[in-house]
Amino acid sequence: MVDLSVKIGDFEMANPVMPASGTFSPEMAQVIDINRLGATMTKTVSRELRDGNPPPRVAEVECGMINCIGLPGKGIDYFLTELMPEYLQFSPPLIVSVTSTTEADFAAMARDVTVPGVKALEINISCPTRDPNGGNFALHAEHTAETVRGVRAATDLPIFVKLSPNAGDVVGIARAAEEAGADALTVANTILSMRIDTHSFKPSLGFKTGGMSGPAVKPIIMRMVYQISKAVSIPIIGCGGIVKAEDVVEYMLAGASAVQIGYASFRNPTAMISIIGDLEEWCDRRGIARVSDLTGAVQDDMETDTYIAAAAGI
Amino acid sequence: MVDLSVKIGDFEMANPVMPASGTFSPEMAQVIDINRLGATMTKTVSRELRDGNPPPRVAEVECGMINCIGLPGKGIDYFLTELMPEYLQFSPPLIVSVTSTTEADFAAMARDVTVPGVKALEINISCPTRDPNGGNFALHAEHTAETVRGVRAATDLPIFVKLSPNAGDVVGIARAAEEAGADALTVANTILSMRIDTHSFKPSLGFKTGGMSGPAVKPIIMRMVYQISKAVSIPIIGCGGIVKAEDVVEYMLAGASAVQIGYASFRNPTAMISIIGDLEEWCDRRGIARVSDLTGAVQDDMETDTYIAAAAGI
Amino acid sequence: MTGMANTVFSSRAHIVGGDNTADHAPKAPVEEALTTVLANDWINDEYKHLVVTASPKSLAARPGQFFHWLCPSPDEGDLWLRRPQSIYRVDRERERLEFLYKCVGRGTNGAATLKPDDKFNMVGPLGVGFSLQPDWKDVIVLGRGVGLATLAPISQMIAENNVSATVILSARSPELAMSGDLFEKAGADVVTVTDTDGTSAVENVESIIEDRVAHGRADAFFTCGSNRLFMLMKRLGTKHGIPGQVAMEQIMACGLGPCYVCVRTFVIGGEKTLKRVCIDGPVFDMQEAMGW
Amino acid sequence: MTGMANTVFSSRAHIVGGDNTADHAPKAPVEEALTTVLANDWINDEYKHLVVTASPKSLAARPGQFFHWLCPSPDEGDLWLRRPQSIYRVDRERERLEFLYKCVGRGTNGAATLKPDDKFNMVGPLGVGFSLQPDWKDVIVLGRGVGLATLAPISQMIAENNVSATVILSARSPELAMSGDLFEKAGADVVTVTDTDGTSAVENVESIIEDRVAHGRADAFFTCGSNRLFMLMKRLGTKHGIPGQVAMEQIMACGLGPCYVCVRTFVIGGEKTLKRVCIDGPVFDMQEAMGW
Ligand SMILES: Cc1cc2nc3c(=O)[nH]c(=O)nc-3n(C[C@H](O)[C@H](O)[C@H](O)COP(=O)(O)OP(=O)(O)OC[C@H]3O[C@@H](n4cnc5c(N)ncnc54)[C@H](O)[C@@H]3O)c2cc1C
Ligand SMILES: Cc1cc2nc3c(=O)[nH]c(=O)nc-3n(C[C@H](O)[C@H](O)[C@H](O)COP(=O)(O)OP(=O)(O)OC[C@H]3O[C@@H](n4cnc5c(N)ncnc54)[C@H](O)[C@@H]3O)c2cc1C
Ligand SMILES: Cc1cc2nc3c(=O)[nH]c(=O)nc-3n(C[C@H](O)[C@H](O)[C@H](O)COP(=O)(O)O)c2cc1C
Ligand SMILES: Cc1cc2nc3c(=O)[nH]c(=O)nc-3n(C[C@H](O)[C@H](O)[C@H](O)COP(=O)(O)O)c2cc1C
Ligand code: FES
Ligand code: FES
Fold it and tell me: Does the beta-carbon distance from D259 to B64 stay under 8 Å?
């Protein structure tokens, strides 16, 4: 039987599967046994009450969806007093996702949520549904570094920095986050996208643009995980388009230590639980002793000579 | 009956559908009537012979494919003497796609292909399969501008600049291309992606990474067309993931004057011809007199108040 | 399958119809279940009536609750989000669920392709349904269009609780005035008003309601499916101090609460607030809900 | 379908099985055609035999040419690229095409789900096939595995051209030595060699070939399916100055020439060069081809 446990630095998980922020809440207990997840993850918490964006907030596209939720929430005080206890009913370690609009407040937010029960922070500097220009601090290495530095100084909890796939130089930004003290990188948030309804001629989303998630984005984020894992030495959490156990394996081969799942839970609320079971079976079939052995295990010493490669068997 | 003709600046097409570079050759005459296309487009031409990348050169993914062809070709001399005559057998106006590794040679290439029979140039500054860092000059506004300026000085032909979706600030780069003298923008090339075979643990592509195309990328490129069309006043050619007439309509609503089709021709070699027919039918059904009226016709004066939008009917 | 190298989907697929439905949380009230289609017939030009097998969990569905359907594709593409459909009838004896749905787009047209014996993946029962207060002895149910499907299980609720009802079914034409049979069986006083004969005009509906109110036969209001009729009921509710419930719609993703896709605006104590249709509703207090 | 707002695919879909196959270029030799499946049966544990209806264009297929299949999905995902399959038999009388394919991955396992009367979209006939030169009167055909399917239509070619042949079928076990019947009907001298009885060893095959060469019964060589056997034939071809043809494989996208996905390395006049399997081949000069 495979050992499914993984570590993201000092953060330990019974298996590599956790929900992606904004796609999970304790309300999922209506349909799944939350205690079977590797970790739990809050919706991103902001300082103040935010209404979020005008509906429609979702559009179906080929191979996924676009959302423009816009980080609604009742603010950090409500979170700490009302929502935290809900999350803490469950045994997996809790990660709190926070965001802010200034670097100083990001640090303050991190300090405010550094309370018993919270096992790690995810710093959401990459939400494209708040800023249609595609994702906040994570678009620039300097802003990323400054934000992470502030957060690092404010808390001793493990800091996972959630990067933006809308950045041009995602590797440089990953390096900046590492240097500034990130313990791990979540790769990545959603990709800024759009759909126009050819019947009504209107954007399908109330906010016009939104973030795409689901299988469509997987090859793009896979490439980012691979590139970043070659450039940094901190762990990576792969996130984007996972719908089956092989997708988890693929992200781990590319360099991820754990994964997050969002869209799949909308299509199949039981997806995370099934994927954990399938992953176990997959590893057992392949004779893999520890799932963590998959991390970075891609065999990428490819033939570089075109003539030689083009003379090889298929 | 709808008037399907469109103009990209002074470049006139009988209908808005043309093939995307690298997915078309006169060999398509084996299966379709090329004269029914809005334009023809060459594979990107380089100065010298290029072998291209090691196979495997294609990987199937959800909603599309990743390629790492690597711009093979026999060089510009062979193109001009041997291939051009093949293209010129057909009546639609011919666009020649060129690339180079230096700004100076880009201009020289443009001069060299400014010959009778060629009706426009597409400047491919964005191929992610040559440079795994994701796409050459089009990743930076300055490089884009310098390249386009050089080309502008070298030819009087209409210049279409093919942008990279891997750039962080694609709108800024679009503006730079416009200012430097581009006549139109092709939005966009493929998105740098990766697949790892969970059976062999190897990258599925010989070049490890490659460019994704097909329906998966459409919402991302749609957003770019929309954003860019708000920022520039030159025409846009939409390219990415078109598989049906409604996709053409969607790109035109977002701001495109014409479109390019790649992947769909692999899945259905007759796709472009069918789409032209379906587009005509679609317009007739909607009572649209000129297909060009669709360009930028998105109705995006959305309600911005969340409470009002959330009280509206669906 | 042999030698599945290079596969995109190679394990048990967690996708349309895939049997991803082992009981993942025995104590949870909601399940993702693979039902078997028993019937899926047109009842008029626009609506189909779907009957599927039901597990004990789904048979606990209350009136006004809904199921989230993973519809098969109606075309060459695929569907990537579920579609909410409220329960039309819970047949506890024969262990069946029934739905009445209008074919309007890809999801519902995909559902329309289902044939007996097909498997159909649905999540439910979801949301907060209609409820009766002990002192409600005679109520008014007013619906139109798709709303008639959502209101239908109120017939079961009133029958079980020995409540009388006036049920006003509004429709473009008589054949679209669905659910009347269920309410008649439940002993309700069914009034059908149609556009065809002009009886569906708001003034006429208003006078029917006012008549029941005048006779003390309106302890509560229930409505769904028409903004015009909702606004009427809300106004009459305010005027006469009659409580009411309305079933609302919104485009959904998760259907379970986490995603905040399905918000609508409510006014509570003069303050605007957003609530999620999937978990805070779909049935809401009529006075807090806003017209749409 | 009614009211198709918000649809992802709403027009005639240009996707698997979609009827996108009106004759788009009457004078073109290749077509995208929606065939009808007549039979699709297992012939052993690994291979299926597919028979489909054929149009005049596809009936013009030559031995060694291939068709590009848009396979249905074997699972909950979709297939996004076609799969090449060489023609096994062209039945011009009954207007049918036959294929022999090994089920190895998603595409072929998807094809394996086809049932009689199903529609199946394929593009073809594609590529350069085998050819006979007028002075070839007695040839040797050597194949193994999937290669036997590709070589099979040579039986039609030799019969039509009154050419004699020795056909060496190499296989793991006798039941995998396919196509022998077709060659026997064409009057060829069929020799089956298998791993089971050890006769498939290169030395044995070499001695069979040398024997035919010694008897002047080897005007040309044809091979497909095994690198080991290809290398043997190439060596013997060089040694005795016998021309030959080999059918090659490569992963494909377009199947028509434009995309340059399907390149393989060839050596022509000592220079390495890349050729496209789909349009420059799949049948190549044996001396120019490289082992794989
Ligand atoms: C709680 C709830 C219960 C419902 N119960 C029923 C029912 O019992 N019978 C019935 O016929 N319909 C019901 N609906 C409406 C049903 O969900 C939609 O008709 C369906 O989702 C449309 O899907 P589609 O893919 O066919 O249409 P699409 O092509 O997606 O859209 C077609 C039209 O339907 C609208 N629509 C899309 N999604 C929704 C949605 N989630 N809710 C409402 N409208 C939508 C679109 O804006 C558009 O106008 C209910 C909706 C909700 C929220
Ligand atoms: C010109 C040509 C003619 C062919 N004729 C036949 C035939 O008559 N009968 C037959 O059984 N097979 C034939 N093949 C091989 C057939 O195309 C592959 O078996 C098929 O594409 C595999 O698809 P899949 O999705 O089932 O497998 P995948 O899951 O894609 O892959 C399974 C295995 O097949 C290999 N493969 C994938 N694509 C190809 C490809 N295009 N060509 C060769 N191998 C591939 C993979 O590398 C892998 O090892 C031919 C191939 C070519 C190029
Ligand atoms: C409805 C929705 C809401 C989301 N909200 C958040 C959020 O609050 N914070 C965040 O960091 N990411 C948010 N995301 C992004 C997801 O966490 C995740 O990065 C993305 O969905 C990609 O994973 P997937 O393809 O598995 O869905 C949201 C995504 C969706 C679909
Ligand atoms: C096999 C292949 C080869 C390509 N070669 C080129 C090329 O030579 N030059 C270029 O500008 N774009 C090239 N592209 C990109 C396409 O022109 C186009 O931008 C992209 O495929 C997106 O369109 P699609 O989704 O319709 O395929 C290539 C794409 C593919 C799939
Ligand atoms: S649909 Fe996700 S919260 Fe209601
Ligand atoms: S498969 Fe495209 S050139 Fe051969």
Answer: no
Burial environment of residue D207 by CB neighbours within 10 A (0 to 12, 13 to 18, 19 or more): exposed
A203:B249 CB<8 A: no
Average pLDDT, chain A: 96
Distance D250 CA to ligand 2 centre (A): 8
Report the alpha-carbon distance of residue A231 to residue A218 in Å, rounded. Answer: 20
Query: Using CA atoms, how far apart are residues B138 and B158, in angstroms rounded to an integer?
Result: 19
What gap in Å lies between CA A59 and CA A209, rounded to an integer? 10
B314 Cβ closer than 6 Å to some ligand 1 atom:
yes
CB atoms within 10 A of CB D138: 18
Express each pLDDT in B242-251 by its tens digit.
999 999 999 9
Q: C138-285: which CATH number, 2.70.50.60, 3.40.50.300, 3.40.50.10890, 3.40.50.80? A: 3.40.50.80
Model pLDDT, residue B127: 85
Query: What is the spatial distance between Cα B142 and Cα B144, in angstroms, rounded to a whole number?
Result: 5
Residue nearest to atom 6 of ligand 1 (CA): C85
CA B23, B25, B27, B32 torsion: positive or negative?
positive
* Contacts with A270 from chain C: Cβ below 8 Å: 14, 20-22, 24, 32
DSSP three-state, residue C249: coil
What are residue B3's DSSP bridge partners? Answer: B290
Residues of A carrying an active site annotation: 127
Model pLDDT for residues D75-134, shown as the tens digit of each residue: 878 899 999 999 999 999 999 999 999 999 999 999 999 999 999 999 999 999 999 999
Contacts of C23 (CB under 8 A, 6+ apart): C31
Give the start-to-end residue ranges of the domains of chain C. Answer: 14-126, 138-285
Q: CATH fold of C14-126, please?
A: Elongation Factor Tu (Ef-tu); domain 3 (2.40.30)
Q: B185 exposed, middle or buried (CB, 10 Å; 0-12, 13-18, 19+)?
A: buried
Residue B159 belongs to domain with CATH number: 3.20.20.70
Taking the C-alpha atoms of residue A71 and residue C139, their distance in angstroms, rounded to an integer, is: 40
Q: What is the pTM of this model?
A: 0.96
ipTM of the complex, rounded to two decimals: 0.95
Query: Helix or strand or coil: residue B41?
Result: strand
What does the block give as tokens for A60? 């179906």
Question: What residue of D is the nearest CA neighbor of B65?
Answer: D80
Q: Is B22 in the pocket of ligand 4 (CB under 6 A)?
A: yes
